[in-house]
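Worked example 3 (structure in, sequence out).
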């Protein structure tokens, strides 16, 4: 029996444009019941071939069965019935070996390395569509059927940060300094790539503080003032803001803030004036709630989960993020005066609920920060009999 072992040595989370590495081993081990009676002719096992490639699967919640065009030509590793969705992207298969002979008790190890396109769609599990990535490792024992194992991994978007053509132009317009004298003791100059340029832009966007204040009002007057210290964040950061109810003329009893996605499905209908369809927006990934009756100041701290998908846009779907506010207000004077010694809380209070949506930008973070808090399996095994 041959045991196939595969492990992602560079983690399970990658930015679009990054390269991943997978260590693939084939070990020939004798089964316990045959160990004592192992003959000389059974001391060798042969595998005809093995290959590896990356597949991106696309599926919808409607399960209509409509096929999505595959990017690139089809390969020998066809999608099986256990795979949900259609293949919208795949890399060219790389042959690991042909006609491999493994002696009993020995292990043969191979390395698979592949770079993801910087324009690749991210991993995403939305209300209407889903994108998922897997490494497909296939092999065939002489005289047997093809065996396949799929290793899932996550891809984060990088392209919305800057236009890809602009990134390529910036990298191509670097000065060469060939006419200047060379210094043998100086460090070798690093070549900028679109991915490294995008990471620099990402860092600059999310580190910049630009406080914005918003006066919150309804039909009866001012509720308060909200200040957001910046509008661009990375996964894992905290959204921090402050509420000032001292400027309000309407009593705010409580406030809740939810971080919600806005998923827009781009319709392919040929009809005019029908170019997109917005899906449900009721899903909440993080929530802040506080009773603010009697408070003049309050602080919002809303952590951004690491498992969500940052903002992106592809041909079929776009994703953005917003803060959904709900203010519960009343015109009644509920708090007693300082000189009132006997005061009882009212049994019924007439209230009004006001909602407000504020767009925020959420970008990717470094994959290592997500991997440190992830429990996703990065190693898989399969027995080939």
């Amino acid at each position: 029996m041959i045991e196939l072992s595969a492990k992602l040595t560079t983690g399970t989370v990658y930015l679009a444009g990054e390269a991943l590495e997978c260590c693939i081993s084939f070990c020939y081990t004798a089964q316990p019941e045959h160990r004592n009676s192992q003959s000389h002719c059974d001391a060798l096992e042969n595998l005809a071939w093995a290959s590896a490639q990356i597949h991106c699967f696309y599926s919808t919640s409607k399960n209509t069965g409509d096929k999505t065009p595959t990017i690139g030509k089809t390969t020998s590793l066809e999608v099986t019935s256990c795979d949900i969705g259609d293949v919208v992207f795949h890399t060219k298969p790389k042959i690991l070996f042909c006609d491999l002979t493994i002696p009993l008790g020995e292990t043969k190890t191979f390395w698979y390395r592949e770079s993801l396109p910087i324009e690749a769609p991210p991993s995403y599990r939305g209300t209407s569509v889903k994108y998922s990535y897997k490494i497909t490792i296939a092999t065939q024992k002489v005289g047997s059927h093809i065996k396949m194992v799929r290793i899932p991994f996550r891809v984060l978007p990088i392209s919305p940060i800057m236009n890809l053509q602009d990134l390529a132009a910036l990298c191509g317009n670097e000065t060469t300094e060939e006419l200047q004298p060379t210094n043998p003791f100086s460090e070798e100059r690093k070549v900028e790539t679109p991915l490294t340029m995008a990471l620099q832009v990402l860092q600059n966007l999310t580190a910049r503080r630009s406080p914005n204040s918003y006066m919150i009002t309804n039909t009866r007057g001012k509720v308060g003032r909200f200040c957001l210290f910046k509008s661009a964040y990375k996964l894992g950061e905290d959204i921090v803001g402050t509420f000032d109810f001292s400027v309000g003329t309407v009593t705010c009893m409580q406030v809740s803030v939810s971080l919600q996605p806005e998923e827009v499905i781009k319709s392919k209908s040929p009809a005019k004036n029908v170019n997109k369809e917005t899906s449900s927006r009721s899903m909440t990934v993080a929530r802040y709630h506080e009773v603010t009756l009697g408070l003049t100041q309050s602080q919002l701290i809303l952590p951004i989960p690491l498992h969500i998908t940052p903002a992106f846009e592809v041909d079929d779907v776009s994703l953005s993020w917003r803060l959904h506010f709900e203010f519960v207000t009343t015109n009644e004077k509920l708090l007693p005066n300082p000189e009132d010694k006997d005061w009882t809380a009212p049994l019924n209070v007439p209230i009004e609920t006001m909602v407000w949506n504020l767009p925020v930008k959420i970008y990717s973070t470094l994959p290592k920060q997500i991997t440190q808090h992830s429990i996703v399996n990065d190693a898989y095994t399969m027995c080939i009999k």
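Notes: The longest helix spans residues 194-207. Confidence is low (pLDDT under 50) at residues 63-76, 168-180, 269-275.
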